[in-house]
Amino acid sequence: MPTAGGASNHFAEYMDFAVDLAGEAATIARAQYGASVARRKEDGSLVTRTDEQIDRLISQRVGDRYPSDTVLSEEQATHFDPAVQRTWIIDPIDGTTNFARGLPTWGISIAIVENLRPVVAVLAFPMLDEFFSATLGGGAFRNGAPIHTAAGAALDDAHIFMECSRTRRQSTFALSIKSRMLGSAAYHICKVADGSAIAGSEATPKVWDLAAAALILDEAGGVMRTVGGQAVFPLASRTADYKYLPYAVLYAADARALAEVRAAMRSVTVEEAQA
Prior knowledge:
275 residues; alpha+beta; Fructose-1,6-Bisphosphatase, Chain A, domain 1; D-Maltodextrin-Binding Protein, domain 2; seven-stranded mixed beta sheet; 32% helix
């Protein structure tokens, strides 16, 4: 696993541990890649035994090392308690459909939240040899090298707009820009963070899809907001079950690009969605 860059002394211990966790999880996931059968959960999303195994592994490791911390994860503990000082938000495999079907765009997402905000982020994409990391105030990195968004670039057909499969069922964007749909919300956001894409839209991500990627984007100079214009973080200071709290988000290289994307957005009619 590549070395993360930029961790301050305050966060270095947690970053090192998160990197080790991601490496251990990546080893498990690589061994089972393309061989896991996905099944549908009650909320309609897909899960494999690998998701569950990695979720249990990370939760156990965090509990053993930091017993006063809590874990909020996609496959086990979905409740958030703001009274706890430090919460680890885990998506054991972001891009489960890709993982199960043998497509390489999937990753392991680990974020640490303090004071309702992500302060440490690790995102490993093992089959792509890409490893993203960030700490609050410490910058964002890909494979140990600093990354920055394509701030100031025009939203034209020389640039890429990331979107999920549900985006087109809900919205269209009057932009002369090329779109890409790669099957992992976290990877989409990281590609805006490293300047490969300039903006994007995710229709129904959960907090575990966004926590690590949002910090990486923010530290790289980008911006993320809900479709309604609110910041995703800090989280609301109340106990909540995030299993049933999807976000619809727009994200971009800078505030100007985000404003252009928002202005170009139009809701899809029922007839258009069914066409």
